[in-house]
Structures are given as structure tokens and as C-alpha cells.
Amino acid sequence: MHVQFLGHSCISITAGSTRIIIDPYLTGNPLAAAKPDELEADYILLTHAHHDHISDAPALAVRTGATVVATFELAAYMEGKGARTHAMNLGGSYRFDFGTVQMVPAFHSSGIVLDGGKNIVYGGMPGGFVLTIEGKRIYHAGDTSLFSDMKLIAEKGPIDLAILPIGDNFTMGPDDAAIAAQWVRAKAVLPVHYNTFPVIKQDVGAFVKLLSDLGLHGFGLEPGQSIEL
Ligand code: NI
Ligand code: MN
């Protein structure tokens, strides 16, 4: 399975012939590693409704025919934009043709800001995803604070790859993300949601060193770089 970091929280996973894009935010992302028109997708997974996670989802879904997987309200919003959708909610799992997806909680917010802030639409609860594909478990935490129920994710076994935000300010910072990595028993960690904007600037090398001091493996990927799982 091929896991590519496309910048911010956007991840591309290719498993067999299935292409999964999580949180497409490429247009307007100064660190984006791809143009939205270059992407192909069978599934688009959205952790929550904030602009920096969904902005390219409607056009990508309509062009590719991909199924958008998101919480009930965000799926309804995407359906209104012409996307094919599969609605889920927190705690629920569903077996797709490529593997199993469980939506898990995240502590964050999830409104859709419209008309320059004049309207804010409820986008459902924010979440994360635990994907079980080819026998490997991948946790994309979405945007979240550290919260102790992350420990429950490891109740079913370790996580092979934990994709964790480290930018601080809007989400966990590096210190809390390192605790999260331990709590989910991550065999490897891919830090995301940093350096896109000045307010979330982080030293990813220092984070990887912090993980290493805890006996954990971290990837400091540049946008566009990939790993094989
Ligand atoms: Ni957010
Ligand atoms: Mn975000």
C-alpha cells in the first residue's frame, strides 16, 4: 500500500487499484504537492468540514465520480454539491471494497463558513478515521486536541501508521502529538497540519527526534513524498 503526503492534512492512499484521498486541500494551499485536477480518486474521506480539509472535495468528487465518506451532515452538504456520498458517524464502521473504515471522535469544531462569515453551517461532529486495509491499521486523527479516549483506539491492537496533526494553535502541538502516538501504540507516525500557515509553523525534525527519544518512528515527509506500508 502506497501512502503519499500531499501537504497540510491531505493524504493519498493507493491500495491495489483503489485510490483514497483524505482531506483534499490543494487549491490555495501554499505547500500543496499536487494540483486538484491531477488527482484521481475512488473514495474521498473527510475528517471534518473546515475549509482546509474539504475545499477541493466537491469538484474532485464530481469529476472522478468518487464516493465522499463523511459524517451525516457533511455528507449531505457534499451531496448538495453533486457528490456521491456515504454518510457515517462517530463509532461506526463500514466494510468498503478496499477495507474497513471506522469513524472515531476528534475534539475540534466543524462549521462551514459561508459568505465571508455571514453564515456558518453546522458540518456535523469532527472525527478521525481508523482504516484497516490489507491487514494494516492506519489512524488519521483529523484536527484534534489530545484526548484520553485515543487510548481506546489501541484496545483493538496497535496502529501501523498514525497520521497526527502537530501544528499547535488549532490542534495538538508536537508534545501532545507524541503522547497521542504512545496512546495509540503507533508503530510509525506521519506528522501533518503544520507549516502551511505561519501560525502552525513547527520544526518537524525536532518532532521526529522527540519520537525517536520515546522509541517511536516518525516520518518527516516533504509534501509529495511517499511511504510504503
Ligand atoms: Ni479544522
Ligand atoms: Mn485544519
Set out the fold topology.
Layout: E1 2-7, E2 10-15, E3 18-22, E4 43-45, H1 51-54, H2 57-64, E5 67-71, H3 72-80, E6 84-88, E7 93-95, E8 100-105, E9 111-114, E10 119-122, E11 127-133, E12 136-140, H4 150-153, E13 161-165, H5 174-183, E14 189-192, H6 204-213, E15 226-228
The protein binds nickel (II) ion and manganese (II) ion.
What does this 3D model show about the protein?
The structure is a single chain. By secondary structure, the protein is an alpha/beta fold. The chain is built from 6 helices and 15 strands. The strands form 3 sheets. Strands 6-5-4-3-2-1-15 form a 7-stranded mixed sheet, with helices on one face. A 6-stranded mixed sheet has the order 7-8-11-12-13-14, covered by helices on one side. Strand 12 (136-140), helix 4 and strand 13 form a beta-alpha-beta unit. The model has no long low-confidence stretch (mean pLDDT 98). Bound molecules: nickel (II) ion and manganese (II) ion (MN). Nickel (II) ion is lined by residues 48, 50, 108, 143, 170. Residues 50, 52-53, 143, 170, 193 line the site of manganese (II) ion.
Provide key terms for this protein.
6 helices; binds nickel (II) ion; seven-stranded mixed sheet; 229 residues; single chain; alpha/beta; binds manganese (II) ion; 15 strands; six-stranded mixed sheet
